[in-house]
Amino acid sequence: MNSSTSGVPLRADAARNVTQIRAAAIAAFRGRGLGTPLEEIAAAAGVSKATVYNRFGGRDGLIDAVIGELVAAEMYAIMDRAGRVDAPWQAIATYVGDRRDLQYREPAFTDALLMLYPNSAQLVALATAATDMTERLLRRGHDAGVLREDFTAGDLYYADVANGLALRALRAPSREDYDRRTRFFIDGLRPR
C-alpha cells in the first residue's frame, strides 16, 4: 500500500505532489485515454516518474485514484438513471444513448470497456456493474418483446468497442452527426 492511500497523513509537499499528479493524470487521460505515458503525466505534474510510483504504486493505482472522476461516477449515474425507467424500451434507449454520449466525450470510457488495465480494482468493479446492468436491461427488453431477440450484451459491448476505436482512430464526427448515428443504432435494436 502506498502512502497516498494508507491513511497516514502526508507532508504538505507530498500532499501537493499527489494533488498535482491527480490533476495531470485527469487532464492527460481525458485527452488521450488511460494509456498516456506516466513520464508525460509526471512531467506535467512537475514530479519524477518515481514519485508517481511512490504515491500511487504505478498506473493501476493512478487509474484507481482518478477513474471515478473520469468515467465511473458518470457511468454509475447512467446505470442508475436507466434502472429507474419503468418502460423497458425507454430504459434500454436511455442506457445505450447515455453510454454513447459518455463515449463521445470521454476517451477513457473506451479504455475502461477494453479492460486494458485488469489490475485496477475500480475498473473491474465498474465493468462488473455495467455488465450486470446491461444483462438486466436487455432481459427486460426481451421479456417485454421490445428488443430484438438476437441482441445480446456481447453485441452492445462489441458495438461500443468498435465505436470507441473509430472515435479514437478517425476524426471525430460533429456532435450532430454522432447523435444521428446513435439514433440509427438504437432504432436498429427494435424487433423486426
UniProtKB/TrEMBL annotation:
InterPro entries, sorted: Homeodomain-like_sf, HTH-type_TetR-like_transc_reg, HTH_TetR, Tet_transcr_reg_TetR-rel_C_sf, TetR_SbtR-like_C
Keywords: DNA-binding, Transcription, Transcription regulation
Pfam entry (one): TetR_C_43
Organism of provenance: Dactylosporangium cerinum
Record bears the keyword Transcription: yes
Segments of the chain annotated as binding DNA: 37-56
Protein name: TetR/AcrR family transcriptional regulator
HTH tetR-type domain segment(s): 15-74
